[in-house]
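FORM 7B: Structural annotation worksheet

SECTION A. Query
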Amino acid sequence: DIKKAIKLVREAKDSGANAVKLQTYITEKRVPKDHEVFGILKQCELSHDDQKELFQLGKDIDITIFSTPFDEESVDFLQEINNPVYKIASFDSVNTKLLNKVSSTNMPVIMSTGMTSLDELGAAWKALGGKDDGTGCDLALLHCVSSYPLEDKRANLSIIHYLHSVHDGPVGYSDHTIGTEIPIYGVAAGASIIEKHFTLDSASEGPDHAMSADPQTLKDLVQKVRWIE
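SECTION B. Predicted structure
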């Protein structure tokens, strides 16, 4: 719903967020048409025109818009509309073909690390153009636990410190807990990027709304992050 998407972007801006991340994909490239989630993915798929409108809105109100591509064609489209940074989802950290495609853009990359082993992380670094001397790729890593919603006691925030020890670039935290407490601790633990799902109403019907921040929760989160900094 492009009208709802526009409202989400404006509310994120008003709440103090620095950026809004979309998802860019072609449903037919992700799952077969007879797959049980095909209809859900298709319903959530933003058209290219919708995404162009959202990128322009970001420029108009001064908030960064960027996206997670899930296929090579989506990378090509995002390049056409000057996507400023690419997000790699956790499950695509082993998708060498997609990583090579993103690497060819020479743009900064943010990659989530849920379920990613250290060997897989090293392979992803190389697939993104990274060299053994630590150069060749402008990469930020996000500690992520792939559980929706995530229990606070399973957040494992010490991994943020560990990622700093094996990666020279920025390290952040992609949060799936309910509320603001764990991402605040994430900043205290060394995260310089926080990714948080966002909704207009956390009581809305759907799998992600309950763990998402509504505008007031996001505003509280931003204020607490600034205080911790």
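SECTION C. Observations
Residues 2-15 form the longest helix (14 residues). The first strand starts at residue 19 and ends at 24.

SECTION D. Sign-off
Analyst initials: ____
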